[in-house]
Write a structure and sequence with these properties.
single chain, 171 residues, alpha+beta, Yope Regulator, Chain: A, 2 domains, six-stranded antiparallel β-sheet, 4 helices, 6 strands
Length: 171
């Protein structure tokens, strides 16, 4: 009887281990990398530059409507910067002016909008940058990466335009 109980426990442990391995390998196929996003941006007519952020993760920079944008990558695996598989990425754009945007405006924008979030950030030079970001989860979603990228890119573009109007920012 004891041998059966041990065998059953061993079988359950093996199934759990196999299940975790399956889940990890299943998610890896829908991870994203900088090379893929570069291709998507180029299809839309943008010219991104690839470098690394302060943590060594891939980062793309490019201009949309004359404003600087970045895409940051998170929870990336090992490998070359452009092909490292990453769990998620983030659209980012910041707007620096001489005067900080009042928190009431930032908070109201965050209350009224979905998907993008805004905040003020004091930079190393002491100036305040009003920023917006949208996070995109890729790994584990089984979503079409191209369609997801384009949907969130468009959402970010609309949010950035609305945000600049809200904070009365002009280049």
């Amino acid at each position: 009887m004891r041998r059966v109980a041990i065998s059953a426990m061993s079988a359950l442990a093996l199934m759990a281990l196999h299940g975790n391995t399956f889940a990890q390998s299943k998610g890896a196929s829908d991870s994203v990398n900088a090379q893929f996003i570069i291709g998507e941006l180029q299809k839309e007519g943008f010219v991104p530059k690839l470098d690394k952020d302060d943590d060594g993760e891939p980062r793309l920079t490019f201009k949309v409507d004359g404003y600087e944008w970045s895409i940051y990558f998170y929870a990336c695996g090992p490998g070359a910067t452009e092909t490292r598989p990453c769990v998620s990425y983030q659209f980012y754009s910041g707007y620096t002016s001489n005067k900080a945007v009042p928190l009431e405006i930032i908070n109201q924008w965050n209350t009224d909008k979905r998907y993008a979030r805004a905040y003020n950030y004091v930079q190393k030079d002491g100036k305040t940058s009003s920023r917006i970001e949208i996070d995109v989860l890729s790994e584990g979603t089984q979503a079409n990466k191209s369609e997801t990228f384009l949907a969130f890119f468009q959402k970010m573009k609309e949010a950035a335009q609305d945000f600049r109007k809200q904070i009365n920012f002009r280049n």
